[in-house]
Design brief:
- The chain is mainly alpha-helical.
- It has a domain at 3-147.
- The chain is 55% helix and 3% strand.
- It contains 6 helices and 2 strands; from the N terminus they run ββαααααα.
- The chain has helices at residues 36-49, 58-73, 79-96, 104-117, 134-168, 177-198, and strands at residues 3-5, 31-33.
- A two-stranded antiparallel sheet has the order 1-2.
- Helix 3 (79-96) packs across helix 4, helix 3 (79-96) crosses helix 5 and helix 4 (104-117) crosses helix 5 (134-168).
- The longest helix is centred in the last third of the chain and has 35 residues, at 134-168.
- It is elongated.
Amino acid sequence: MPTFNFDFNRSVTNIDLSAARSGLFTPGITRLDLRDEAMTRYNSIVRQLNPEHAPFSADQIAGAARRVLRAAMKGQESAFIKARMRRAGEMRSALKDRQWTIPESPRGKMEAIIEYLDDPSSLIPNDVAVIGQLDDAILVDIAMDSLRGELENFADFCRFRWQEAARLQVTEVDTDRAQWMAERARERRLELQLKRVRGTSYADGGSAGPVFRVC
């Protein structure tokens, strides 16, 4: 079981900074235990979310945690964690929405992330100050390339549903993904038609007639 002492040890990470810029001394947390079995489980989820991503080492996670702590000591909130946890909230909402049907592949990844987020035995316990959600945020970040489109579609579906409710002057509407897709396809066809109309001249394209001058 690797143990990292944040008062003395230094490590590097390749999560989002080069090794030369990571691993600096950071006060705040004296110890963080990264257990072997927890690292193995964590990397199994990493492979599920992105098979091409290399497994993380304990050194990399410790280095990332140290950088977050260093920024916190300067009064800087971790934008990395905040943005990814907001995305995790979007995943949770999409999974809970009964009107939104998620394809099998993105659904499986979202469920794996949310299950990990809700597990008290995660790599870094959620009750650890400042860095408790760092491991969660890293998983979200790994999966975002494959989930971004689905989350953007869900956000657009929510806007569509709200607009339909407002148009019908009701609190909610009975709609689903298929209806949303059909409406967006209709809008795209209309947009293409309008582009063609705007690009078409109403003149016959022939030569101009004789010019009459009044003197």
